[in-house]
TrEMBL record:
Belongs to the glycosyl hydrolase 5 (cellulase A) family. The lineage of its organism: Eukaryota, Fungi, Dikarya, Basidiomycota, Agaricomycotina. Keywords: Glycosidase, Hydrolase, Signal. The keyword Signal applies. It catalyses: Endohydrolysis of (1->4)-beta-D-glucosidic linkages in cellulose, lichenin and cereal beta-D-glucans. This is cellulase. Residues 24-319 form the Glycoside hydrolase family domain. Its EC number is 3.2.1.4. It comes from Mycena pura. The keyword Hydrolase applies. Residues 1-17 form the signal peptide. One of its GO terms (biological process) is glucan catabolic process.
C-alpha cells in the first residue's frame, strides 16, 4: 500500500492531562527462545509461552481496578522466519494473542497495549536484547526493511481496527542503532497503522532502551539523543504519545534489588522536552525490589507522574502466567506481580509485598473507563 501523508501535523497539545491508564505488564508471549538461534520457535502455547491467565486479569480489574495491561509477544512467532516480517501471520499464534487482548478489552473493558517485544530487531531473538538484525539496516542483507515493518503494523492494526480499547506500542526498547532509524521505523509504523483506518493511541519508543533518564543523552555507541529526533514524528490522527521505560536501580536496568535512582530528577529533562514539544508520555515499564526503600522510590515516581501533566499512564513490570518463582525485575527474592505465585524463597511474591505498599495506593480512581484509547 502506498502511503502518503504530506502534512506534518503536530501532536495534539492538551492544556491538561491526567493519568488515564494504570496497570501492569503481562509478560510471557515472548518466553522460551533463549539459547541457540531457533530455540523455542515457533514454540508451544502454554509450555514455552503464554499470554495471560484470565483469572488473574480478573483479580487486577475487579479487585485492583486497574485499566491497562501491556501484553507482550514475539515478532518471530507472529511472523515466522519462513514468511518474513510483513502481513502474513501465523494465524494460530495470532488467535492465541487476540484471545488474550480480546479478553482484556471486550470482556473486562480494560485497555490493552499491544507490545511486539523485539528491541526493533527481527530474525533472531535467541539472545535478546542484542541478537537479531536491526529493522531497516540497509547494509545488512538479512535485515527486515522499514517497509516490511510498515506492512506488519498495517496488518496488525487492520485486525484491531474495530477495537477502541487497544493501544499500539510500536516496539519494545530500541537500542544501539541510529536514532534517525528509530524515527523512520516509528514513522513507518504510524503510517501503516493509520493507513489501516485505525485511530487508536500509538506509543512511540526512543533509542537507548527508551530510557527516560537518557532521553536527552547520547546512548549506545554514540547514538544521538532521542530528544533530537522523536519530536519529528507526525501522526495524521494526532494520537501518538512517547513510550518510556524507567527502572530505579543503579544502572536503570531493573536488575538490582536496591533503588538508588530517583525518578523526579532523572525524568526532569524528559518532562521539560515533553512540555516544549507538546507531547505526552506513558511509562510502560518500571519496577523496584522487595524492600522499603524501593517502595518509597516507586511511590515517589507514581506521585511525580500524577503531578506532571505530560504523563498519561503507566504499567509496572511484570505479571504474567509463566514466571513461576522467577523475578522479572529487581532482585531474586522479589518474584513477579502475578497474583497467587511465590518468589524464589517460597514466600509471597511482589503482588503481596510491593503492590500493596507502593502501587495500589497510587491507582487513580478516575482512570479512563470508556471510549477510544487517546491522549485525553
Ligand atoms: C490462574 O490463576 C488462578 C488464580 O490465581 C490460579 O488458581 C490458577 O492456577 C492459574 N492458572 C494457571 C494455569 O497458572
Ligand atoms: C504457528 O504457531 C503454532 C503455535 O505455536 C505452531 O504450532 C505452528 O508450527 C506455527 N506455524 C509456523 C508456520 O510457524
Ligand atoms: C548493520 O549491518 C551491518 C552489516 O551486517 C553491521 O555491521 C552493522 O553493525 C549493523 N548496524 C546496526 C545498527 O546494527
Ligand atoms: C539534563 O540536562 C542538563 C542540561 O542540558 C544536563 O546538564 C544534565 O546532565 C541532564 N540530565 C540528565 C539526567 O540527562
Ligand atoms: C527488567 C527486566 O526484567 N527486563 C526484562 C524484560 O523482559 C525482557 C524479555 O522478556 C528481558 O530481556 C529483560 O531483561
Amino acid at each position: 500500500m502506498i502511503l502518503s501523508y504530506f502534512t506534518p501535523y503536530l501532536f495534539l497539545a492538551a492544556a491538561w492531562a491526567k493519568i488515564l491508564y494504570a496497570g501492569v505488564n503481562e509478560s510471557g508471549g515472548e518466553f522460551g527462545v533463549f539459547g541457540t538461534p531457533g530455540t523455542g520457535l515457533p514454540g508451544r502455547f502454554g509450555v514455552n509461552y503464554a499470554f495471560i491467565n484470565k483469572s488473574t486479569v480478573d483479580i487486577f480489574v475487579d479487585q485492583e481496578k486497574i485499566n491497562f495491561f501491556r501484553v507482550t509477544f514475539l515478532m518471530e512467532r507472529m511472523c515466522p522466519l519462513e514468511f518474513g516480517l510483513g502481513s502474513k501471520f501465523n494465524e494460530t499464534y495470532f488467535d492465541e494473542y487476540a484471545d488474550a487482548v480480546n479478553y482484556i478489552t471486550l470482556q473486562k473493558e480494560a485497555y490493552a497495549l499491544i507490545d511486539p517485544h523485539n528491541y526493533m530487531r527481527y530474525n533472531d531473538p535467541s539472545s535478546q536484547p542484542f541478537s537479531g538484525s536491526v529493522i531497516g539496516n540497509t547494509t545488512d542483507p538479512t535485515a527486515a526493511t522499514t517497509r516490511q515493518f510498515e506492512e506488519f503494523w498495517n496488518e496488525l492494526a487492520r485486525r484491531f481496527v474495530h477495537n477502541p480499547r487497544v493501544v499500539f506500542g510500536i516496539n519494545n526498547e530500541p537500542h544501539d542503532m541510529p536514532t534517525q532509524l528509530v524515527l523512520e521505523n516509528n514513522q513507518a509504523a504510524i503510517n501503516g497503522i493509520r493507513a489501516a483506518g485505525a485511530q487508536q493511541l500509538i506509543l512511540a519508543p526512543g533509542n537507548g532502551f527508551t530510557g527516560g533518564h537518557a532521553w536527552t543523552q547520547v546512548t549506545g555507541n554514540g547514538d544521538e539523543p532521542s530528544s533530537d529526533f522523536l519530536n519529528m514524528l507526525h501522526d495524521p490522527a494526532r494520537n501518538t504519545a512517547i513510550d518510556v521505560h524507567e527502572y530505579l536501580d543503579i544502572d536503570f536496568s531493573g536488575g538490582h534489588d536496591e533503588c538508588t535512582q530517583p525518578a523526579p530528577s532523572n525524568l526532569a529533562n524528559l518532562t521539560t522536552w515533553l512540555q516544549e514539544n507538546h507531547l505526552k508520555a506513558v511509562i510502560s515499564e518500571f519496577g523496584g525490589g522487595n524492600n522499603q526503600n524501593c517502595f518509597d522510590f516507586i511511590n515517589e515516581m507514581l506521585t511525580y507522574l500524577a503531578a506532571n501533566d505530560e504523563y498519561i499512564g503507566w504499567s509496572i513490570w511484570a505479571a504474567g502466567p509463566i514466571w513461576g518463582t522467577s523475578s522479572p525485575c529487581c532482585g531474586a527474592d522479589t518474584g513477579s506481580l502475578e497474583p497467587g505465585m511465590l518468589n524464589d524463597l517460597g514466600q509471597p511474591n511482589a503482588f503481596s509485598t510491593l503492590w500493596p505498599a507502593a502501587v495500589r495506593p497510587n491507582i487513580p480512581k478516575d482512570l479512563k473507563r470508556s471510549g477510544i484509547s487517546s491522549l485525553l
